[in-house]
Design a protein that fits this description.
Elements: H1 2-26, H2 48-58, E1 64-67, H3 70-74, E2 80-86, H4 91-102, E3 109-115, H5 120-126, E4 133-137, E5 143-148, H6 156-163
Parallel strand pairs: 1-3, 2-3
Antiparallel strand pairs: 2-4, 4-5
């Protein structure tokens, strides 16, 4: 008689535990918020100046290295435009080109490559007499600064430092 009573008691206790577990998982805990409720309903004040600065930063034009054109010079999306007088036969020029292409140009900077041998009018306009010359110009194409890189450190940072 004891054995059936013990088995019955174990079955009742097991059923009670299982039932309590099911109940605990199906009844919503009132201390937790429902996942469909918004996280916050408070009004948030927006800092319009910070938003404007973030918008300006997002619209900054990525740096680029491309072939020279008057349209590229006139592109007002770039704060710094540098014309690079390049000669494919010149090892100095090839080293500068490799440095320029090797790293990203800073936002707002464009370097426009022109062929030293066939750009007679541009060489005359900017007084360029040696390949590997870099000329910073404004959007009107006016000379702002000229730097001859021949014999200098062949790095993008050096180019940008010397035309600022």
């Amino acid at each position: 008689m004891k054995k059936p009573l013990i088995i019955g008691l174990v079955v009742v206790i097991a059923a009670a535990l299982i039932g309590a577990g099911i109940y605990a998982f199906t009844v919503e805990d009132e201390t937790n918020e429902s996942t469909t409720k918004p996280a916050s309903t408070k009004m948030v004040e927006v800092d319009s100046e910070a938003l404007e600065q973030a918008d300006t930063a997002a619209t900054t034009t990525a740096g680029r290295y491309q072939e020279y054109s008057e349209a590229a010079v006139a592109d007002s999306n770039y704060q710094t435009t540098v014309v690079f007088f390049y000669a494919p036969w010149c090892p100095e020029c090839r080293a500068f080109k490799q440095a320029i292409e090797g790293g990203p140009l800073p936002d707002g900077v464009q370097i426009l490559e022109t062929d030293f041998d066939s750009s007679s009018k541009l060489k005359e306009k900017y007084g360029v007499t040696l390949q590997s010359t870099f000329v910073r110009v404004n959007t009107s194409g006016d000379l702002q600064k000229k730097w001859v890189g021949y014999g200098q450190d062949k790095s993008l940072a050096n180019v940008l430092d010397n035309v600022q």
